[in-house]
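Researcher: I'm preparing a figure for a lab meeting and need a structural model of a single chain. I don't have an experimental structure, so a prediction will have to do for now. The sequence is pasted below. Please return the structure as tokens so I can convert it later.
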Amino acid sequence: MGEHLLHGRIVSDEQIQAWADEAEAGYDLSQLPRARRGRPPVGEGPGVVVPVRLDEATLAALMARAEAEGLATRSDAVRAAVREWAHSA
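Model: Understood. Here is the structure written out token by token.
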């Protein structure tokens, strides 16, 4: 068969067959995690929305660094920048 990738890594035909066998055998649905409503938490306790305005140059620099560090969203980039400045985890 051809080459199969999952998250950029090669997956063997044997692994794919093992997954197919597992699926065909069936899953115990009571063991699956419950679906959660709303957005996932971003830290301890509920999140607080903090609107902020940035000029184009600052936003471009923020997003360039975010891309270089593998951050997917603007919100992730802003949180990372604030954590670094505030020296918190």
